[in-house]
Design a protein that fits this description.
It is a single chain. This protein is mainly beta. About 15% of the residues lie in helices and about 35% in strands. It contains three helices and 16 strands. α2 (about 130-145) packs parallel to α3 (about 170-180). The two termini are about 15 Å apart. The relative contact order is 0.18.
């Protein structure tokens, strides 16, 4: 028995976007039980499942339906947390527990801010320097992950960093991302690359979950771009004691 999960930054696709049919078709190929979409729309995925979202305020002018993170499952989520920690930049976190084919799993969906997040804010007091939001988020996420003791935990979403060689993040933030994850929570997708490009969308799992397979899937369909990110998929199973 295995659990199929995937994460993808879909670049603000809405239910009415021309590229949405291609995006949904690509997702459906994996028949996932759990999906994490980032930079998305709250109503993008099928209504026959259960979606939970990050808060709508992510530090920019709000647009109807836009969410930085959405988690979707075939089964309901309980409990749901769309804050994570008060120290996290707003609107980029959501977590919950859902039942799957391998039992209950806890999932944290993240969208770590890109290096230019809020650098052009109109109000000077809200304006950030490059990488400031990213650094602040990693600090808050570290507290969330280091204090978590749930079993069968999956953390996935847009990390906005290549992990390892090729990273353009400052060295201190490369270290901060690595250090955010405790030893029993490993980023399984750190070495994935497609067409010479390393992924910045990632899936991390606790050691009580075994990784059966990993892969990236293309962001193009019939020669047209579906998103500016590749998607990441994984097959997981319950780790034997």
């Amino acid at each position: 028995m295995s659990l199929s999960v995937l994460t993808w930054n879909v670049e603000w696709a809405t239910p009415r976007s021309r590229r949405t049919a291609g995006i949904l078709g690509r997702i459906d190929r994996y028949t996932p039980e759990i999906v994490c979409l980032t930079v998305t729309h709250a109503e993008l995925l099928a209504a026959d499942g259960h979606a939970i979202c990050s808060q709508p305020d992510y530090g920019y002018a709000a647009k109807v339906g836009r969410r930085k993170v959405m988690l979707w499952s075939k089964e309901p989520w309980q409990p749901v947390d769309d804050v994570g920690a008060d120290t996290l930049p707003p609107g980029r976190f959501v977590s919950g527990i859902t039942r799957t084919s391998i039992g209950e799993v806890a999932v944290i969906g993240v969208c770590i801010p890109w290096f230019g997040s809020r650098t052009e804010a109109r109000r000077e007091k809200e304006r950030k320097k490059r990488w400031d939001d990213h650094a602040e988020y990693l600090k808050g996420l570290t507290g969330v992950l280091q204090s978590s003791h749930v079993k069968r935990l999956i953390v996935m979403g847009d990390f906005n960093q290549v992990i390892g060689p090729g990273s353009r993040a400052p060295a201190r933030l490369q270290s901060a991302l690595r250090d955010a994850f405790p030893p029993d929570l490993r980023v399984a997708t750190a070495d994935l690359a497609l067409e010479g490009q390393s992924s910045i969308d990632h899936i991390a799992v606790s050691r009580d979950l075994a990784i059966e397979s990993l892969g990236l899937f293309s962001n193009t369909h019939n020669g047209k771009r579906l998103s500016d990110h590749f998607g990441v998929a994984a097959e997981l199973s319950a780790q034997r004691a």
